[in-house]
Amino acid sequence: MSTVAKFARVLSLRAHSPLRLQSRALASAISSTALKMAEWQMKIPVPPQLLTPLAVPSKVLFGPGPSNPSMRIYNASAMSLLGHMQADFFKVMDEVKAGLQYVFQTNNRYTLAITGAGHAAMEASIMNIVERGERILVCDNGMWGKRAREIAERQGCDVKALEKSPGGYYTYEEIKQGLIEHRPSALFVVHSESSSGVCQSLQGLGPLCHEHDCLLIVDTVASLGGTPFFTDDWELDVGKGFQPQNQGSIILPGYGRVRYHHTAAVNLVYALRESLAIVAEEGLENSWKRHQDTIEHFWAGLESMGLELFVEDKAHRLPTVTSIKIPEGFPDWKAVPEYLMKKYKLEIVGGMGPSVGLVWRVGFMGHNSYRENVDLFLRLFREALESVHPGLPKAQL
């Protein structure tokens, strides 16, 4: 059978089968006359919605992330594109690496950005540390602990868990007993459980894990830059964090040489570089203090309205994301975020995973973490509560 005849046979099967050409050599051997444009009909029309320029409304993002970046970051993402293998871009990458080492507080040379969401960094952290069949112990007290379990299970790891209800956190002794009982190769801890607003203490966990021949993986997506975090001093093995423009960042122990890996998202790297520069100019300690001062002002405002916080122990609350208990008997928790979005284009959200229906989650982080934003939100939040539930006791307003 000739090459053209074989191709004709393939075409006749395409309507009944997902068969695809597997050989470029076969395709290149086809006579150009067999592929004349006139012989094909356009069956997918031009999408009419793409015939007008993109228009994105401006909104205030006071949820658990993403949050509004500064104009400096927006402008950086619109700078002239560089080739991803050009020396000028390598310089930007080196600056990003230095910035990540600063915010993670580590000298680890394998500190890097991943072009992807926090999930990508979580998967990379687990898959590069725990082999198939090895045991990993996950501290599961919310959505992100559960997600780590799912990723590890799909990887074929032997997954054990220390489970807590939403809002719960772990003591040093509880984790120690878990290591003794399960003898894992790695421990996964969420430093910033944004589904409930818990900030898990990491003090002493690095040395504890190493005493039990175990590596420590830490998720700091919602806390990095907003609360103290010391990778080297706390003896953390792998940390994964997040920066404003959808760049997962991790630190990994490893070996290798400089080589091409993939085509980087150049403009996102620009934005990441500028977000790190903003942190560096302010100084980490000043950033931590600003976030703490802002959030304590927020907590005081909520308590003055008679509202309760989901995490009762102040020492274990995140300074970036706060979970507010939905008052008992509140008719429809979704109505409050909907009111704020419809009237003011302001975003807050409800719970996530196991905390759905229990809380509203509000975030003040990065460029949004200032007292004036808190004062604005408290005024509008009070209005939303009064509008949605006029019968709410005044003590809760």
UniProtKB/TrEMBL annotation:
Transmembrane segments: none
Pfam name, any one: Aminotran_5
Superkingdom of origin: Eukaryota
Residues with PTM N6-(pyridoxal phosphate)lysine: 240
Catalyzed chemical reaction(s): glyoxylate + L-alanine = glycine + pyruvate
Enzyme Commission code(s) on record: 2.6.1.44
Protein's UniProt name: Alanine--glyoxylate aminotransferase
Taxonomic source organism: Acropora cervicornis (Staghorn coral)
